[in-house]
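Hey team,

Sharing the Lipoprotein signal peptidase run so nobody has to redo it. Sequence (207 residues) first:
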Amino acid sequence: MSLKKSIILIIIILLIDQVSKIYIKTNFMLHDSVEVFSWFKIYFIENEGMAWGTRISDFVSFISDRTAKTFLTLFRIVAIFGIGYWLYSATRKKSSRILTIAIALIFAGALGNIIDSVFYGVFFNDSYNQVATFLPKDGGYDSFLHGKVVDMLYFPLYKGYLPEWIPKYGGQFFTFFEPVFNIADMAISTGFVMLIVFNKRAFSKKD
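Structure output:
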């Protein structure tokens, strides 16, 4: 796939991602939800920048969420340039279509979440007990680089208590699938899955 087509794909994903996030942010209060089907809900949460609704402190406990958030955002900004160069190189070498699509998806998803992390703290006020507004007069809920990523897609495919015979977790309430995510997360995950499942087709021996 050519660089031009890759850029078009990236723009489409970014538009869908950002339009959905801005709509949720400006129409829902935090933790508001709408049931679309019994197994799919629109459920508004925000996270500090990790994928699939996770928090930085779930993985790094020895530094504050705020400090880790800054480093994570800066790392992602650097990484996006690396992914962009990888995409540019792949299109120039006329690599496989699967490879260029996968890289474009990963790039679009990463950039989509970076936009939240870098700008949303400045562009919106908070969503606690209120619907946020865009560019509020009193300023945003946080500073540059400290925005929270908007998540809204929730697929609780199964909810119930696990059988007692299951070791350690028997009798506990269990939800599958519990993470809440967004379009950008879907793009990143799809790109990685494509690289893993279609590895031989994505990478030639020369590559």
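The chain is about 50% helix and 15% strand.

Ping me if you want the raw files.
A.
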